[in-house]
Amino acid sequence: MVLKLYAAPQSTASLRVAQVLHENNVPFEFIPIDLRAKEQKQAQHTEKNPFGQVPYIDDDGFVLYESRAIGRYIALKYAGQGTAGLIPDQSDIKALALFEQAASSEFANFEVHAAKIAYEKLFKVRLGFPTNEEVVKGAIDQLNVKLDVYEGILAKQGYLAGRELTLADLYHIPFGTRLYRAGLGDLIDSRPNVAKWFNALLARPSWVAIKDGITSTA
Protein backbone atom coordinates (compact mmCIF):
# COMPACT_ATOMS: atom_id res chain seq x y z
CA MET A 1 0.00 0.00 0.00
CA VAL A 2 1.09 3.56 -0.69
CA LEU A 3 2.07 5.61 2.35
CA LYS A 4 -0.58 8.17 3.25
CA LEU A 5 0.26 11.62 4.60
CA TYR A 6 -2.53 13.37 6.47
CA ALA A 7 -1.42 16.99 6.62
CA ALA A 8 -2.10 20.63 5.84
CA PRO A 9 -0.55 21.88 2.58
CA GLN A 10 1.39 24.76 4.13
CA SER A 11 1.83 23.84 7.79
CA THR A 12 5.45 23.85 8.90
CA ALA A 13 5.31 20.38 10.43
CA SER A 14 3.59 18.97 7.35
CA LEU A 15 6.20 20.47 5.03
CA ARG A 16 8.93 18.95 7.18
CA VAL A 17 7.57 15.44 6.60
CA ALA A 18 6.80 15.94 2.91
CA GLN A 19 10.36 17.06 2.25
CA VAL A 20 11.82 13.93 3.80
CA LEU A 21 9.46 11.80 1.71
CA HIS A 22 10.78 13.56 -1.40
CA GLU A 23 14.42 13.23 -0.28
CA ASN A 24 13.96 9.47 0.10
CA ASN A 25 11.92 9.11 -3.11
CA VAL A 26 8.95 7.64 -1.23
CA PRO A 27 5.70 7.82 -3.20
CA PHE A 28 2.85 9.04 -1.02
CA GLU A 29 -0.81 9.95 -1.14
CA PHE A 30 -1.55 13.36 0.35
CA ILE A 31 -4.81 13.65 2.27
CA PRO A 32 -5.36 17.35 3.03
CA ILE A 33 -6.63 18.37 6.45
CA ASP A 34 -8.50 21.68 6.63
CA LEU A 35 -7.18 23.40 9.76
CA ARG A 36 -9.59 26.33 9.49
CA ALA A 37 -12.51 23.92 9.51
CA LYS A 38 -10.83 22.20 12.48
CA GLU A 39 -10.83 18.83 10.77
CA GLN A 40 -7.80 17.96 12.89
CA LYS A 41 -10.01 18.08 15.97
CA GLN A 42 -12.62 15.67 14.64
CA ALA A 43 -12.86 12.18 16.10
CA GLN A 44 -11.63 10.37 12.99
CA HIS A 45 -8.44 12.44 13.13
CA THR A 46 -7.83 12.39 16.90
CA GLU A 47 -8.20 8.62 16.78
CA LYS A 48 -4.91 8.68 14.85
CA ASN A 49 -3.31 11.78 16.37
CA PRO A 50 -4.76 12.27 19.85
CA PHE A 51 -3.31 15.78 20.10
CA GLY A 52 -5.51 16.96 17.25
CA GLN A 53 -2.60 18.23 15.18
CA VAL A 54 -1.02 17.60 11.80
CA PRO A 55 0.62 15.66 10.34
CA TYR A 56 0.37 11.93 10.76
CA ILE A 57 1.17 9.08 8.40
CA ASP A 58 -0.37 5.71 7.73
CA ASP A 59 2.27 3.39 6.30
CA ASP A 60 0.41 0.18 5.47
CA GLY A 61 -1.40 0.28 8.80
CA PHE A 62 1.43 1.70 10.87
CA VAL A 63 0.27 5.09 12.17
CA LEU A 64 2.74 7.67 13.42
CA TYR A 65 2.43 11.33 14.41
CA GLU A 66 4.90 14.08 15.38
CA SER A 67 6.80 15.38 12.37
CA ARG A 68 10.34 14.85 13.62
CA ALA A 69 9.56 11.27 14.60
CA ILE A 70 7.97 10.67 11.19
CA GLY A 71 11.02 12.10 9.44
CA ARG A 72 13.33 9.79 11.34
CA TYR A 73 11.13 6.80 10.60
CA ILE A 74 11.13 7.55 6.88
CA ALA A 75 14.88 8.21 6.75
CA LEU A 76 15.60 4.90 8.51
CA LYS A 77 13.05 2.71 6.74
CA TYR A 78 13.91 4.03 3.29
CA ALA A 79 17.63 4.58 3.85
CA GLY A 80 18.45 2.54 0.77
CA GLN A 81 16.79 4.97 -1.64
CA GLY A 82 17.07 8.66 -2.40
CA THR A 83 19.41 10.81 -0.33
CA ALA A 84 21.76 8.71 1.77
CA GLY A 85 22.77 9.48 5.32
CA LEU A 86 19.93 11.73 6.46
CA ILE A 87 20.45 9.86 9.70
CA PRO A 88 24.01 8.51 10.10
CA ASP A 89 24.56 4.78 10.13
CA GLN A 90 23.62 3.40 13.54
CA SER A 91 26.99 1.66 13.80
CA ASP A 92 28.86 4.99 13.73
CA ILE A 93 28.15 6.12 17.26
CA LYS A 94 30.15 9.35 17.01
CA ALA A 95 28.46 10.47 13.79
CA LEU A 96 25.10 9.56 15.30
CA ALA A 97 25.88 11.57 18.44
CA LEU A 98 26.85 14.60 16.33
CA PHE A 99 23.59 14.24 14.43
CA GLU A 100 21.61 14.14 17.69
CA GLN A 101 23.50 17.22 18.85
CA ALA A 102 22.57 19.10 15.68
CA ALA A 103 18.97 17.88 15.81
CA SER A 104 18.63 19.07 19.40
CA SER A 105 20.10 22.43 18.43
CA GLU A 106 17.55 22.86 15.62
CA PHE A 107 14.70 22.54 18.06
CA ALA A 108 16.14 24.24 21.14
CA ASN A 109 18.23 26.98 19.56
CA PHE A 110 16.37 27.79 16.35
CA GLU A 111 12.76 26.75 16.06
CA VAL A 112 11.75 27.74 19.57
CA HIS A 113 12.61 31.35 18.70
CA ALA A 114 11.67 31.39 15.00
CA ALA A 115 8.27 29.94 15.86
CA LYS A 116 7.52 32.83 18.21
CA ILE A 117 8.24 35.29 15.41
CA ALA A 118 6.07 33.38 12.95
CA TYR A 119 3.23 33.17 15.43
CA GLU A 120 3.31 36.87 16.28
CA LYS A 121 3.99 38.37 12.86
CA LEU A 122 2.20 35.93 10.56
CA PHE A 123 -0.39 33.76 12.31
CA LYS A 124 -1.82 36.40 14.66
CA VAL A 125 -1.88 39.03 11.91
CA ARG A 126 -3.76 36.66 9.61
CA LEU A 127 -6.38 36.21 12.33
CA GLY A 128 -6.63 39.95 12.94
CA PHE A 129 -4.89 40.00 16.32
CA PRO A 130 -2.17 42.52 17.24
CA THR A 131 1.47 41.50 17.25
CA ASN A 132 3.24 41.49 20.60
CA GLU A 133 6.36 43.37 19.56
CA GLU A 134 8.06 42.67 22.89
CA VAL A 135 7.83 38.94 22.24
CA VAL A 136 9.15 39.47 18.71
CA LYS A 137 12.09 41.54 19.94
CA GLY A 138 13.00 38.92 22.52
CA ALA A 139 12.92 36.17 19.90
CA ILE A 140 15.03 38.23 17.48
CA ASP A 141 17.58 38.93 20.20
CA GLN A 142 17.81 35.22 20.97
CA LEU A 143 18.10 34.25 17.32
CA ASN A 144 20.88 36.77 16.79
CA VAL A 145 22.87 35.08 19.54
CA LYS A 146 22.13 31.56 18.32
CA LEU A 147 22.78 32.29 14.65
CA ASP A 148 26.13 33.82 15.51
CA VAL A 149 27.02 30.40 16.88
CA TYR A 150 25.68 28.78 13.71
CA GLU A 151 27.90 31.10 11.68
CA GLY A 152 30.95 29.82 13.54
CA ILE A 153 29.95 26.19 13.13
CA LEU A 154 29.23 26.56 9.43
CA ALA A 155 32.53 28.35 8.86
CA LYS A 156 34.22 25.04 9.67
CA GLN A 157 31.90 22.52 8.05
CA GLY A 158 29.23 22.36 5.40
CA TYR A 159 26.39 21.14 7.59
CA LEU A 160 25.42 21.26 11.23
CA ALA A 161 26.40 17.68 12.00
CA GLY A 162 29.57 17.70 9.89
CA ARG A 163 30.33 17.26 6.20
CA GLU A 164 27.07 15.53 5.23
CA LEU A 165 23.49 16.71 4.98
CA THR A 166 21.17 15.33 7.65
CA LEU A 167 17.60 15.77 8.83
CA ALA A 168 18.91 18.35 11.30
CA ASP A 169 19.67 20.71 8.40
CA LEU A 170 16.44 20.08 6.50
CA TYR A 171 14.31 20.65 9.59
CA HIS A 172 15.34 24.33 9.62
CA ILE A 173 13.60 25.10 6.33
CA PRO A 174 9.92 25.49 7.30
CA PHE A 175 10.46 28.10 10.00
CA GLY A 176 13.51 29.57 8.28
CA THR A 177 11.32 30.49 5.32
CA ARG A 178 8.77 31.96 7.71
CA LEU A 179 11.42 34.44 8.86
CA TYR A 180 11.57 35.80 5.32
CA ARG A 181 7.79 36.05 5.15
CA ALA A 182 7.91 38.02 8.38
CA GLY A 183 10.40 40.47 6.84
CA LEU A 184 13.29 39.18 8.94
CA GLY A 185 15.32 37.28 6.37
CA ASP A 186 18.31 39.43 7.27
CA LEU A 187 18.74 37.24 10.34
CA ILE A 188 19.98 34.63 7.87
CA ASP A 189 21.30 36.75 5.00
CA SER A 190 23.56 38.89 7.19
CA ARG A 191 25.65 35.85 8.09
CA PRO A 192 27.56 34.59 5.02
CA ASN A 193 28.04 31.00 6.12
CA VAL A 194 24.49 30.65 7.40
CA ALA A 195 23.14 32.23 4.21
CA LYS A 196 25.19 29.91 1.96
CA TRP A 197 24.01 26.86 3.92
CA PHE A 198 20.36 27.91 4.00
CA ASN A 199 20.19 28.92 0.34
CA ALA A 200 21.63 25.54 -0.64
CA LEU A 201 18.88 23.87 1.37
CA LEU A 202 16.23 25.95 -0.38
CA ALA A 203 17.61 24.92 -3.77
CA ARG A 204 17.14 21.21 -3.09
CA PRO A 205 14.57 19.61 -5.42
CA SER A 206 12.77 18.18 -2.39
CA TRP A 207 11.97 21.70 -1.14
CA VAL A 208 11.25 23.13 -4.58
CA ALA A 209 8.65 20.37 -5.04
CA ILE A 210 6.65 21.34 -1.94
CA LYS A 211 7.38 24.99 -1.17
CA ASP A 212 4.09 26.14 -2.75
CA GLY A 213 2.11 23.34 -1.18
CA ILE A 214 2.10 19.57 -0.77
CA THR A 215 0.65 17.32 -3.46
CA SER A 216 0.48 13.54 -3.88
CA THR A 217 3.27 11.76 -5.72
CA ALA A 218 1.49 8.42 -6.06
Automatic annotation (TrEMBL):
Gene Ontology annotations of biological process type: glutathione metabolic process
Residue intervals of the GST N-terminal domain: 1-82
Classification via Pfam families: GST_C (PF00043), GST_N (PF02798)
EC number: 2.5.1.18
PROSITE patterns in UniProt: GST_CTER, GST_NTER
The keyword Calcium appears for this protein: no
Annotated InterPro entries: Glutathione-S-Trfase_C-like (IPR010987), Glutathione-S-Trfase_C_sf (IPR036282), Glutathione_S-Trfase (IPR040079), Glutathione_S-Trfase_N (IPR004045), GST_C (IPR004046), Thioredoxin-like_sf (IPR036249)
Molecular function GO terms recorded: glutathione binding; glutathione transferase activity
GO cellular-component term (any): cytoplasm
UniProt enzyme class: transferase
Annotated ranges, domain GST C-terminal: 92-218
Domain of life: Eukaryota
Catalytic activity: RX + glutathione = an S-substituted glutathione + a halide anion + H(+)
Family per record: Belongs to the GST superfamily.
Record protein name field: glutathione transferase
Record organism: Ephemerocybe angulata
